[in-house]
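Researcher: I'd like a candidate sequence for this fold, 238 residues long. If you have to choose between options at a position, lean toward the conservative one.
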């Protein structure tokens, strides 16, 4: 049974890059503060959680310590900076005994992570290789059609006609035909609405303040069995 719930959606935190993303740790703390202040039921981090697979053990410990600040499920989709392959950052020892509320997509063919208590299922393909062959939103499927259906996808949205040949493409019809209640996207630092027909689909943007913003932002998705699904943006601490 679908329950009313609130999902916090962010992406592209790029932890462990002191040069290009010097305030990534502060931004990540702000996201966890927002989990508390919004009383969210789930936190989605849609790829590029870490900047690269050589990040320090201290960086991983910092991440785990932040995850441990909450009991709500935190769901990670690996992106092109934190690929799910043999040398993946997610294969390091700290993740073999990580907090129980941390869920990581591992299957490059796509898989579901279901939460029966909330009547919700999250679907995503863990990126193994950032290539034109990989398309993050094809062959999507949900076992239980009575649940809320949320897809996570890390890649480049563009119209099929552009034919750019770029890696990890997401086409408008992938979203339009997904059957999802919400599509949570990552890969772009800037917030972007790419909703199709009646399916809400957003790039949350990174939680770090961009030059045209007063503060960093995250997306909040409110799902209500009677009122439907709505998207708003939440301003993080500056
Ligand atoms: Mn990316």
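Model: Candidate sequence:
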């Amino acid at each position: 049974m679908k329950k009313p719930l609130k999902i916090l959606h962010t992406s592209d935190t790029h932890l462990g890059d002191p040069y290009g993303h010097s305030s990534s740790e502060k931004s990540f703390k702000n996201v966890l503060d927002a989990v508390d202040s919004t009383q969210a039921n789930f936190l989605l981090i849609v790829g590029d959680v870490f900047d690269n697979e050589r990040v320090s053990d201290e960086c991983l410990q910092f991440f785990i310590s932040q995850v441990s600040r909450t009991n709500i499920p935190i769901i990670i989709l690996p992106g092109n900076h934190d690929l799910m392959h043999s040398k993946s950052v997610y294969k390091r020892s700290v993740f073999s005994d990580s907090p129980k509320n941390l869920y990581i997509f591992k299957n490059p063919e796509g898989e579901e992570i279901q939460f029966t208590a909330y009547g919700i299922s999250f679907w995503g393909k863990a990126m193994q290789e950032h290539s034109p062959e990989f398309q993050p939103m094809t062959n999507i499927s949900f076992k239980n059609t009575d649940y809320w259906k949320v897809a996570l996808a890390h890649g480049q949205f563009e119209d099929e006609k552009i034919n750019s040949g770029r890696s990890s493409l997401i086409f408008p019809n992938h979203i339009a035909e997904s059957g999802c209640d919400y599509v949570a996207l990552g890969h772009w630092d800037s917030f972007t609405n790419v909703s199709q027909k009646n399916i809400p689909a957003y790039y949350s943007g990174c939680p770090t303040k961009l030059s045209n913003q007063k503060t960093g932002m995250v997306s909040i998705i409110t799902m209500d069995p009677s009122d439907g699904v709505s998207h708003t943006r939440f301003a993080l601490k500056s």
